[in-house]
Amino acid sequence: NLFFFSILVMGTSTRLQELIRVIRAAKTQAEERTVIQKECADIRSSFRDGDGTYRCRNVAKLLYMHMLGHPAHFGQMECLKLIASQRFTDKRIGYLGAMLLLDERQDAHLLITNSIKNDLNHSVQCIQGLALCTLGCMGSAEMCRDLSVEVERLLRMSNSYVKKKAAICAVHTVRKVPELMELFLSASQQLLEEKNHGGVLHGAVILITEMCERSPEMLQHFRKMVPQLVHIIKDLVMSGYSPDHVVAGMNDPFLQVQILRLLRILGRNNEQTSEVMNDILAQVATNTDSTKNAGNAILYETVLTIMEIMSESGLRVLAVNILGRFLQHNDRNIRYVALNSLLKMVQTDHNAVQRHRSTVVDCLRDLDDSVKRRAMELSFSLVNGNNVRGLTMELINFLQNCNPELKSNCASGIFLAAEKYAPSKRWHIDTIMRVLTMAGGYVRDDAVPNLIQLISSASDLHAYTVQKLYTALLQDISQAPLVQVASWCIGEYGELLLSGNCEEVEPVQVTEDDVLDLLECVLQSHMSLPATRAYALTAIMKLSTRITENIDRIRKVVSIYGSCMDIELQQRAVEYNALFKKYDHMRSAVLERMPLVDKSLSDGNGDGKELSASLYQEAQLPAVEKPSKNPTQQTQQANQLLDLLGMNDPSPITLTPVTNDVTTPAGGQLLDLLGDLDMTGGYNEVSPPPDHKMLVAYPPFFFDACSLVVFFNHFAASLPPITAYDRNGLLISFSFERVSATLLAITMSATNSTEAEITNFIFQAAVPKSIQLQLQAPSGSSIPALNNGAITQGIHIVNTQQQPLRMRIRVTYSHHGNAVQDLCEVNHFPPGTFQ
Where does the GAE domain start and stop, copy by copy (predicted)? Predict the structure, then answer.
C-alpha cells in the first residue's frame, strides 16, 4: 500500500516535512515504530559514512523523533559538528540539538565550550543570541565560570537583542556559580536605566531578584535602588496606552509583576524601605483594572507584597479588601488564591478579614473541593466568642453535605472551636452530639473521652444529656462514637433516664426493659465494633446497681458473653460474673458513678499523682483466681526461660505468687516468673504478702468501662523518659509514672525508622528477684515503617525495698522476612523511679 511504499522510498535525503507526514499517516503504534526504526537506521548509516551533505536535515529529523519519545542520543556528536560549522542554519539546528540532547551530567557538553566562546565573540547578533541561549539553558558550573567574562561584556553592549539574552544567561550563571554575582553587579545597575523594558529591563529585574535572594550583601546594596524601581513601576501604571508593551489591556504586566516581587524581597523586615513603597503600592492597588486577568495578576502580586513588607495598617486593609473582591470572582482559581492569602493574613489582620466572613461562608457551597477546603480552614480561623453560634451552624451544615475526605477535618475543627468558644456547656454538648450524629465515623479518637469528661463535669445537665443520647440511640446505632458515649451515659446516669425528670426537654417515659432492649440491640448489631460492645456490656453491668426488677436478666446477659469469641468482651464478662458470684457485696461500690476528673490534670497541666493514686486505691479488687499449677513445673519453666536469656544460675528460684491477668499474653505469663530474677547472680528469697497475692493493677473493665483510661495516659510525673533500646532502626523508649511509693507504671513505646514493617514483635523483660514485674497486653504486634506508628505496652513494677532498678529486655521480631532476636540490659533508670 501507499504507506509501506513511502517507507521504502525514504532515505537520508527525505525532508523533515515528509517524515512528519509519513509518521502521522501511521495507523498503529507498530507502524510508527517501523518508520522510526527505518529512519534511524538510515541516519546512523549517514553519520558513520561522515556525509555532511544532509547532516543538518538528519539532526532535525532526529530531534523530531526525540520529541516523540524515541532515543536520539547517537546524534550528540553530530550536534557538536553543526555548532562548529560556519553556516547559520547549521548552527541553529546544532545549538537546538545541544539544548535538547545534552545536559551537564554528560561529559560531551564540555566539548562545546570553545565553540560557544567563539560565537559569543561573533559579529552577528543572531549567532551571539544562539550561544547565549544555549549557555543559559544547559551550561554547567564549569562552563559558566569559564564564559562569565564574555557574558558580562555582552551585558554592556548597546544592542538590546543581545543584552536581554545576556541578562537571562547571567541569571543562570548566578544560580550555578553564586560567587560570580559580584561580576554582574555594576552591569545590572546600568540595565535598570534601559528604556527597552520589553526585554532588557525585565531581564535586569530578574537578575537583581536572583542576586538579592542569594546574598544578604546584595540585598542591602540594592535597597538603595528602591526609588528607581518605584519610578519605573509608577511610569508603567500611570502612563497611557503603549501598543508595544500592552498585554490584555495592561501596560507590560510581566514587568510590573516582576518589579513587585523584587520590591517584596527588598522591603522585607526593613521599615525604611517599606515606607518608600507604600504610596506606589496604593496607586497600583487602586488604578489597576480588576476586570482583566492580567490586572488580577498584578493585584495579587501587590497584595503579596503588602503582606510581606512592613506596610501601613490602611494599606493592609486595602489588600484584604482586594482579596475580598477576588472571593466574588467567577474564576475558581482566583477564589482559591484569595482564600489562601486570607488564611495567611488572618493572624495579623483578623478584624479586616472578619469583615468578609459572609463571603467566605458562601465559598463553602462552591462546587470545587479545593475551594471548599480552603474556605473551611479560613472559617475555622474566623471563629471567635461573638460569632461562634452562627459560624458553627454554617460549618455543621457544611459537614452534613461535604465530601467524605473533608468530614474528618471539619469535625475536628468544630470540636476545637466549640471547646474554645462555647457560650455554655449545654450548647457545647448539643454541638458535639450533632457532629457525632452526622459524622461519627470521621471524628478523632479522643472525641469520645473528651465528650464524656464534658458531660460528667456538667452535673446539672446529666438528665438532659442522657435523655437526648437515648433518643439519638433509638434512631441510629451505626455511629460508633455516638453509641459509645450514649452507652456510657446510660450506664452512669440510668436512674435519671428512668425517672423521666427533665425540665429542659419533653419528658420521655422509659422502662427498664426498654433500656436493656436497646443495649442488647447494640451488643448484637453487626455494625457494632468490639469497643462499642464493651461499652454496652459495661453499661448493662452498671445498670445492675441502678435498677431493681431486671437483675436476673442482666446476670443472664453477662453470663452469655462469658464464652464470647472476642477476648476483650469475654474478659469483661468473666470479671463481671465474678462480681455477681464472689464479690456481690462490693458490686455497688465498684459500679458507682465515676468521680469527676479535672481536665487540666488529664491534659498534663497539673500534678496528677494524687488523683492517679487515689483512683488506683479505689480499684484494688481481688483477682479472678485460677487453678494453681504444680510449683515444681513452674520452677522448671522459669529456669528454661532463664537459660534462653542467658541469666540462669544454679541457685534455686523462689516463686512469688502473682495475680493472673487475663490480658497478659503467654510471653507475659512466663515473664511473671522472671519477676523473682536477681541479675546480680544471687536469688534472695522474698516473703510473699500475707494474702499471697501481688498488688493488683486497676482492672481493665473498671477504667475502660468508664472510658477514662485516656486520663491516666496524661498523668506524667516529672520523671524524664529514657531510651532503653536503639538498634537496627528499632527504638524502644520508657516513660514513667509513680502511682504510689512502691508502685511504678512504665509505658514502653516501640517505633520503627526503617523502610520495612516490623512484624511478630514480642517484648520480654526481667528484673531482680526483690522486684516484682507485671507486663500488660501490647497494643499490637506490627510496627509500621518510617515512624508512622508505634506499639505501646504497660509495665507495672512493685519495688517495696526501693532498690535501684535494673532490667534485662529481650525483643523478638521479623524484619525483611528474617527472624531477629536481641538482648540488652537497661541500668540507667532515673533515681526517681526507685527512690
Answer: 717-830
